[in-house]
Amino acid sequence: MPLPVRxxxxxxxxxxxxxxxTFPTLAAGDNGGFTPKTPESPxxxxxxxxxxxxxxxxxxxxxxxxxxxxxxxxxxxxxxxPRSTEGPQVRGNTRLELAWTGLPVLILAxxxxxxxxxxxxxxxxxxxxxxxxxxxxxxxxxxxxxxxEYPNGAIGIDDLRLPVGRVVDLAVTTAPxxxxxxxxxxxxxxxxxxxxxxxxxxxxxxxxxxxYVGQCAEFxxxxxxxxxxxxxxxxxxxxxxxxxxxxxxxxxxxxxxGAITWHGACSKCHGPQAQGYIxxxxxxxxxxxxxxxxxxxxxxxxGMMPRVGPDWDAKQIDALQTYMKQHFGQQGGASGGG
Length: 338
Ligand code: CUA
Prior knowledge:
The protein is α+β, with helices and mostly antiparallel strands. It is 43% helix and 17% strand. A hairpin with a 5-residue loop joins strand 2 and strand 3. The longest helix has 34 residues. The C terminus is likely disordered.
């Protein structure tokens, strides 16, 4: 026996609603870019809490509005009434009107209160834990890499190592001649801009060992997409040992600063083997041997090439040249291995 028209319409609408709700639920279940990353710092936790509160309220409003819309479409349909005849006219319902005015005010007040309660811990995680002494790391955005400078002078690129459970003050900035970049590791907190001539601070407390990835969040030029960053959170003693060793190594003969700089800053445009990519081939290029020429190009750029290291110190340029001479000094590529 066929279903009556009304029941059939209802069944179709219910199916459509079910299908519509299935897709986002599947995406959310698989974290297909639909739900935020799991927070691993107090700042990120406060951001996620706020996100979920607003999501819950807006989802409830969405369901309320769409279900009453569907209900009204079905309940007050024309039922074959001629188009020229008006349907029943309904005017005024004081209680209902008070409710839909008052409720949104209460919801917005609840969101504002919640955000103001959470704001301090987004900004400063030390209020959320009894953490040890503070470590300051300078984070500089350049076209197209992130350079990290530790208190003992050690330099890292794109790969920031931090101790677990210790408050870190990230001093985010860039050279006066740079464009703007934005530092962002989603599971560790919000974005913070690297602005020429300004130092922005971000306090960070990573709670768990692990690797957390991020991306420059400000469109900054042709290789913006290659401006990835990674935070490696290590146990405090391991971090202390590493940073000490790295600082000493970079001052001496066994420095890996040249390799770090080549792979982080130069290879993204010139190719890992200096074979040429967006930028020209550098294998066997005379500039590899020319300290002054190399420095000029690094500091001031040339043609399409940005000022890749406008404020690098001599140590870093020397280390880079040593690495380049070893690996790309002759036509045809690597001569020094590794
Ligand atoms: Cu730096 Cu986008």
